[in-house]
Amino acid sequence: MKTFKLNTNSTFKYSNINLAIGNFDGIHLGHQTIIKKLISDSKKMKIKSAILSFEPHPRQYFEKNLNNHLIINHVTKETLFRDLGIDYNIIFSFDSSIASLGASSFVEKILVKMLKIKNITVGYDFKFGKNRKGNVDLLKRLSKKYDYSISFIDPVINPVTSEVYSSSLIRRYIQDAKFDNVSSLLGRHWSMSGTVIKGDQRASKINFPTANILPGNLIRPKKGVYAIRAKLVKKYFNGIANLGERPTVNGKSLLLEAHLFDFNNDIYGKELTVEFLTFIRDEKKFKNFDLLTEQIKRDIQLAKIIHLNK
């Protein structure tokens, strides 16, 4: 897979591509269905498959105070695109010049003249251009003028819940800590990744050493304790984690503290991925460390039962 970072002044040397447009945040099972059709159709047409997504996310551009919105970061997205078999990953800068571009001009200047599309693959409710005025009817009309074809994708529905796969729905489930629902929509466990940093060592003193990472800019689940699975290099470890500000020790900053079962290696500076499996309880302030220690023991017992049933 080749990755390109473009803006309205860029040139693109390739042509005759089958393009899907969207932010594909989360790359959930609905997205994966679209991407698999994109790749399958591209092979039949003997042309390259491509995805155009915007950075920053358009909502983050228009809503300047919108933080912690994304389900996955660009590194994870690129890895998933590559694993699915996309040929070209086009990351388009969402700035004032693209935001002010009308729908017809977007088709002419970006899709036809710059990217030289042969086919475009879109969902039934696709909207684009300034004020989202462009739609599939406009794409159909302009396809005759500019000689491209269109593949339409029907809404993809979760057969278990009968819900349409949706990034907005997944964000809500993450915030509500409904991780069984999140996993069923993503087709995998949702995770946070980061470099392991030094904490205040208090957890080690009560025999529950933790690997601590900063939550970063992704969407955040509610504060509390979770059963987790952690990935370190290529190995997985079951464990438990607290996402919160550690009120018992008067913590001030948000931290993800992961306690890995049967593990006590020094991993400071290493990259750790923490997959969220099940919410156990809300974060709570305890009167003393003895009460906190007893609660952690109960949390670990419950987490181990959860792991046995996963």
Please give a structural write-up.
The chain folds into 2 domains: 2-153, HUPs (Rossmann fold), CATH 3.40.50; 189-308, Elongation Factor Tu (Ef-tu), domain 3 (Beta Barrel). 33% of the residues lie in helices and 26% in strands. It is built from 10 helices and 12 strands. Strand 5, helix 6 (136-146) and strand 6 (149-153) form a beta-alpha-beta unit. The longest helix is centred in the last third of the chain and has 20 residues, at 289-308. It starts with a strand and ends with a helix. The mean pLDDT is 90.
In short:
This protein is α/β, with parallel strands linked by helices. The chain has ten helices and twelve strands. It has two domains: 2-153, HUPs (Rossmann fold); 189-308, Elongation Factor Tu (Ef-tu), domain 3 (Beta Barrel).
Give the topology, please:
Layout: E1 2-6, E2 17-21, H1 29-45, E3 48-55, H2 58-62, H3 74-84, E4 88-93, H4 96-99, H5 103-114, E5 117-123, H6 136-146, E6 149-153, H7 167-175, H8 179-186, E7 191-195, H9 202-205, E8 211-213, E9 224-232, E10 235-244, E11 255-260, E12 271-282, H10 289-308
Parallel strand pairs: 1-4, 2-3, 2-5, 3-4, 5-6
Antiparallel strand pairs: 7-12, 8-11, 9-10, 9-12, 10-11
Helix pairs in contact: 5-6, 7-8
CATH domain class name of the largest domain: Alpha Beta
Distance between the termini: 34 Å
Task: Give the number of helices.
Answer: 10
**Remind me, CATH topology of the largest domain?**
Rossmann fold
Radius of gyration: 23 Å
Largest sheet composition = 6 strands, parallel
Query: Can you write the helix and strand succession as a string?
Result: EEHEHHEHHEHEHHEHEEEEEH
Strands of the biggest beta sheet: in what spatial order? 1-4-3-2-5-6
Tell me which oligomeric state these chains represent: single chain
